[in-house]
Structure formats: C-alpha cells, structure tokens
Amino acid sequence: MSPRRLPLLAMLAVIAALAAVGCADPAEADDPIRAGRTVYGDSCSACHGARGQGGVGPSLEEVVIDFPACSDQQKWIRLGSDRWLTEVGATYGATGKPVNGGMPAHDRLGDDQIATVALYERVEFGGEDKARAFADCGFTGTGDGAVPGSDS
User: Are 73 and 122 in contact (CB under 8 A)?
Assistant: First the structure.
C-alpha cells in the first residue's frame, strides 16, 4: 500500500466511526432500560440467553438475590470472574457463590453501559421494582431522560 493512501484510509476510518456514533438510537439516550437491552444483546445474551434464562452462563433470574446492591453487580460485570478472583476474592454475590471462571471482564464497556445493562437485567430478569432499580443503579428518575447520576 502506498504511503499516500494512509491519510485517506485514516480519514475514512474517522468518518465511519463518526457515522456509527451518529446512527445510535436517540431513544436510548432517554431510556436506560432500552439502552441496557441493547448492551445485553450485544455483550451478554450469547452466554446468558436472549431472555436471561441461562445457557453457557447462569440464569439471571436471581440476579437481585445474588447482588442486592447494583454497584456489586456492576463491579462483577466490569471485572469478570478472573479479575474478581484476584481483586475481590474466591466468592461473589450475597450468596457467596464460588468463582469458577467463565464470566469475561467487560472492562471495554463504559460506566454508563455497565449501569444500563445491570439496570436492564435487574428489572427484566430479576423482577426488581423499576423505581428501586433506577435508584440503586445510580439513575435519577424512572425512565424519562434518566442518566447515571444526573438530576434530570
């Protein structure tokens, strides 16, 4: 490849990235559960199943029992089992389940993505009251324009 084409390829990559950002569903910005559903579909459903019923990974039906505090669930999602084992300990969750490996670290996801997917899992699969889940996962409000830690 000619060195003259490299700037052109770099510019095309930037344009493609900007276009992808611009194509995000604007409704997701105002609905964290909807945003969490998207993150779940992209990052979690392959192991936990499309409806959280389990598969390679466990069912998420008891996610609120396992993680009464959303912040602990978010930490588990971010670290995954290997990092949890080295940074936190040999068990996870309120029920003290042994860390057996298999949960990948999702440290490539941003804090807002991790918060929205935890919120989605708690409401959709764990049956947690929506208002309680919003508050516990760090959202203000119950859906209309709620974002992590915002006042709107």
Answer: yes
pLDDT tens per residue across span 55-74: 999 999 999 999 999 999 99
- Looking from the CA of 8 toward its CB, the CA atoms found within 13 Å total 5
What is the predicted pLDDT for the residue at 16? Answer: 41
**Whole-number average pLDDT of the chain:** 83
All residues at 6 or more sequence positions from 82 whose CB lies less than 8 Å from its CB, including other chains: 101, 105
Angle at 116 between CA 114 and CA 120, to 5 degrees: 115
User: Please, which residues bridge with residue 91 across strands?
Assistant: 98
Amino acid at site 97: K
- Please tell me the distance from the alpha carbon of residue 120 to that of residue 28, in angstroms, as a whole number: 12
Residue 26 pLDDT more than 80?
no
Percentage of the chain lying above the pLDDT 70 cut: 74
Q: What secondary structure letter does DSSP report for 126?
A: T
Are residues 109 and 78 in contact, defined by beta-carbon separation less than 8 angstroms? yes
Beta strands in the chain (DSSP E): 91-92, 97-98
Task: Measure Cα distances from 144 to 15, 27, 30, 147, 149 in Å.
Answer: 31, 10, 6, 9, 14
